[in-house]
Write a structure and sequence with these properties.
Largest sheet: 10 strands, antiparallel
CATH class of the largest domain: Alpha Beta
CATH superfamily of the largest domain: Glycosidases
CATH architecture of the largest domain: Alpha-Beta Barrel
Bound molecules: alpha-D-glucopyranose
CATH topology of the largest domain: TIM Barrel
InterPro entries: DUF5110 (IPR033403), Gal_mutarotase_sf_dom (IPR011013), GH (IPR017853), Glyco_hydro_31_AS (IPR030458), Glyco_hydro_31_C (IPR048395), Glyco_hydro_31_N_dom (IPR025887), Glyco_hydro_31_TIM (IPR000322), Glyco_hydro_b (IPR013780)
GO biological process, one term: carbohydrate metabolic process
Strand content: 25-35%
Organism: Sphingobacterium deserti
Helix content: 10-25%
Family: Belongs to the glycosyl hydrolase 31 family.
GO molecular function, one term: hydrolase activity, hydrolyzing O-glycosyl compounds
Amino acid sequence: MAELDKKEELASEILTEESLDNIHHVNNPVLDVPAIEKKYLGTPTSYVKDSNRFIFTDGKASVEIKVFSDEIIRVRLAPQGSFLDDFSYAIKKDLDIHPTSFSLEETADAYLLKTSLVVCRLQKADFRVAFEDVQGKVFNEDHKPMHWEENVDYGGYYVYCTKTTPDDEVFFGLGDKSSNLNLRGRRFSNWNSDTYGFAFNQDPLYKTIPFYIGVTAGDAYGIFFDNTFKTYFDFAAEENDKTSYWSEGGEMQYYYIHGPQMMDVVKRYHELTGTHFMPPLWAIGYHQCRWSYYPESNVREIAKQFRKRQIPCDALYLDIDYMDGYRCFTWNKRYFPDPKKMIADLAADGFKTVVMIDPGIKVDEDYWVFQEGKENKYFCRRGDDYFMEGYVWPGRCQFPDYTNPKVREWWGTLYRGLVEDGVAGVWNDMNEPAVFGRGTFPGDVRHHYEGYRGSHRKAHNIYGMQMVRSTYDGLKKLQRNKRPFTITRAAYAGTQRYSSVWTGDNIATWEHLRIGILQLQRLSVSGLSFCGTDIGGFTGEPDGELYTRWMQFGVFSPFMRVHSAGDTRDREPWSFGPEWEAICKSFIELRYKLLPYIYSAFWRQHKYREPILRPIAMLEQKKMQNLQREEEFAFGHHILVSPVLNPGQQSKIVYLPEGDWYYYFDNTIYAGGKEHQIDTPLEKMPIFVRAGSVIPEYPVMQYTGEKNIDCLRLNVYYGEGRQDSDVYIDHGETFAYEQSVYSEKHFIVEGGKQSLIVTQNQEGLYNERFDTYKIYLIGVPFDVNKIEVDGVIVHITMDEDNSPYFSVEKEFRKLTIG
Ligand code: GLC
């Protein structure tokens, strides 16, 4: 009897989700079931080749090695010999990469799969996999063979991979983790979670980006573990010489991405998962948000204040209170009696309106969205066919299954009314998905998963991504091919193809300013370059100094938006008094001056797959000790910043990489390769421009497009040797750039002892409105006697601020200054 009770107790325990984490390790003597043990691959006995795939088997389990390109090789494991369908939400559809050549050699103890750059070595004795370069340097190798455990509760397997970790190896990546930049010594899990007021090192957070970069002896490689189940990464935390990653289901399927530069790894990761499309120009201006601006008079007043105070701003946000009882796609007509008129008036004043849309649909038989979803069976259901119901802002809700293409299509069309009202952008939130009380959906909720089917355990981490994908697709159609602007809180690898992201509900503390700086760099090297924090902190109250320092960092955040919780005091740039307002204004103006530079960095991200933010350690990979300076980063290729992170800080030590650097505010030259102490009065922050760069600048505008640019200012920073710069311009709105309607200018600056030569060539079909450049020379170390443009002499003029410049036709090819 006692034994029976015990059995029942154990059986019911097995069914609770909480126990699942542990249960697979339990060898239960009472139930008399076989121990659930880890199983390892054995000796490969044969293999077959199928084009660029090689399938090995040990008689039962199979391993597939597929060569995607000379630098990217995928490894898959099928414990029982048959692979799952080869489908991934992360990998972009039109993947167009191929190896130039590859071959398989067999030696006495290994199979060697070789591309022109990488050797994948498969040990015959035990199936251990290693990746080397063609010189034989090992970049990454299995510590023990891939292994698995049966998942008795759900079917499928827990799959594991364990790599050897050299003493000097450091790790980057994993998306939005709130930890130090180097992930070594820590264990992380990926399970998209609504984490209001998260802490330093809290894990998991909102996003799942199972991609990391390892750097050892100055050389980098990447691992992308493309598995949507709950995944884990242990970076030499449990044992100092091992790094493991594993999952609670799905396949062991990972891509090895060769470097040796971190930049190459990130670019190749983008080759697999895509880049962010060019955002509309207004999306990279300054955005003002809070929970919530209402009623209409309040929104109008905010807009009025921006223009009155001449603080640039491109977008105002409406958080959930604009809706009728939090019903998505409706308006609260008491607060917003005529939204179309309000949005049109705002637009006439240069403001775009962005609105919040959540996934929870109120269970209300009189609400058209609920009716349509119900009628068409678009809402998620539990394992036993009951609807998945949970409480969110509107009360009792049901949730669309965005993993069903039909549901995505429908959801996309729901934006019609908002688009007709003039809404310019959409902010998708609570899409982890978040459910009050229980956190998220139970594991048994069923998903369509593009026809491949799966439980919520498999679909959880891609739910938010599929929601914003449907938003993006819907807006793209409804806005007649204008570039959509979307922002999402939850994400999986590849979300950059559809959206920008923010880091969720942070706190108004100095510590969180620092966490945000780490998160944005990490997101950027994890493929999500269009990212931002809630400037000022979502919850809690910043003082004027913290708010202002955060605003300064915000200028160098790809997405620049102030946002705060419903119960906080005012958070507009003027809310902290005139002293802080003046500094915030000057920094927001700086953002607008730098817009053409920032836009060009977005282009380099989109076309050349370069992350927008780059940790300082990435700039000089052989000097990994720079990882200590984790708050310093490059913003695009030519600007380096080190935000101020402490109250009352008068100065800070900044390390500058090799080469000369100009302090932005007064053009003083600092030598790189060493540290400098830089004054940090409140109205300044350490901003440096690389010698040899060409930085385009716009005049300050109150919103993008306010002024026509009749000539483009180019600041040419003298530097010895050669530097390349790009300036990208288009009309800022449609996808015409996909048909080459853009202008991409390449400048090469060559500085000698007595000369400076700037050459230009251009790509693309776009003809800007301006005809001339106004060129400002900065830091030329010799007396300028003659300036020649394509053989014709030009003369220096003084501008209204008494700064010397000269004008040249924008088509110039060669500028010689001597
Ligand atoms: C969530 C979001 C936050 C938003 C709030 C109300 O907490 O993260 O940005 O303001 O919901 O919609």
